[in-house]
Amino acid sequence: DAKTTQPNSMESNEEEPVHLPCNHSTISGTDYIHWYRQLPSQGPEYVIHGLTSNVNNRMASLAIAEDRKSSTLILHRATLRDAAVYYCILNEGYGQNFVFGPGTRLSVLP
Amino acid sequence: DAGVTQSPTHLIKTRGQHVTLRCSPISGHKSVSWYQQVLGQGPQFIFQYYEKEERGRGNFPDRFSARQFPNYSSELNVNALLLGDSALYLCASSSVPTGGLHEAFFGQGTRLTVV
User: Fold this and answer.
1) CB contact under 8 A, B56 and A95
2) CB atoms within 10 A of CB A60
C-alpha cells in the first residue's frame, strides 16, 4: 500500500485558515487521496477526497499538486470543533482497506 | 437517520476468552469493514465484507474472524484473547465495496480491554 507522511502535530488560532500537508511520493495513477478526521472519543469522520483536481466541499478544500506527490487539506476558518487528528489516506479504489498512518494532531487555540 | 451502530460500547475480557463485537451499517449500505485502533495509533484494517462475502483481509492472525448477515449487519469474533488485543474496534459502512470514489462512515467503536 502506498504510504503517506504528515507532520505529527500542528497548531492554529481560531478563525484562521489551516493548511495540513501530506506527502505521498509513491502514489500510483489509480490512488485516490482521502482525508478523514477523528475527534476525541469518536470514530473517524470523512472530510474530503480527490483524484487529480482540487476539490471543495462544505467542510474543507483539497489542493492536489500537479504531480500528485503531495496534497494539502485546507480548513478555511478553524473552529475549536476542528481540533482532531487528521488522516491523509491513499486508496486504490478497489476496496475499503484504508491504510491509516499516525495522522496530524491539530490543536485550535481560542 | 441512524448512523453506524456498534455494540457493546465497552467490554472487559480475560486473556484466553472469546469476544463477539457487533455492527449495524447505515440503512442501505452493503459494505462493512472492521478496523482495530490501538491507543495512540491510527486504525488498522482487519476485514471488509460486501454482500456477505469477504472482500479484503488485513494482516491479522486467524484468531480474528468475521461474517456478514443477510441484513448486512456484521460480527467480528476474536478467539484466545491476548493483552495486545486491547483496542478500540471500529466498524465502517459504505454503499459500495470500493473505497476510491465513496466515503466510509464509521461507528463510535467498541472499546475492548483484555486483562
Assistant:
1) yes
2) 19
Q: Which residue of B has its CA nearest to A87?
A: B42
Task: Kindly state the helix (H) or strand (E) to which residue B105 belongs, with its residue range.
Answer: strand B105-106
d(CA B112, CA B103): 26
Q: Compute φ and ψ for A31, nearest 5 degrees.
A: -80, 130
Query: B76 CB near a chain A CB, below 8 Å?
Result: no
Mutation site, B24, B35, B60, interface A, largest A CB count within 10 A: B35
Phi, psi of B83 (to 5 degrees): -55, -35
pLDDT in tens, A14-70: 999 999 999 999 998 888 999 999 998 899 999 999 999 999 999 999 999 999 999
The answer to whether the Cβ–Cβ distance between B92 and A43 falls below 8 Å is yes
Backbone angles phi, psi at A9, to 5 degrees: -150, 155
Which one of A48, A94, A96, A98 would you mutate to disrupt binding with B, by most B Cβ within 10 Å of its Cβ? Answer: A96
Cα-only R_g, chain A:
13
Strand order in the sheet with A61-64: A18-23, A70-75, A61-64, A55-56
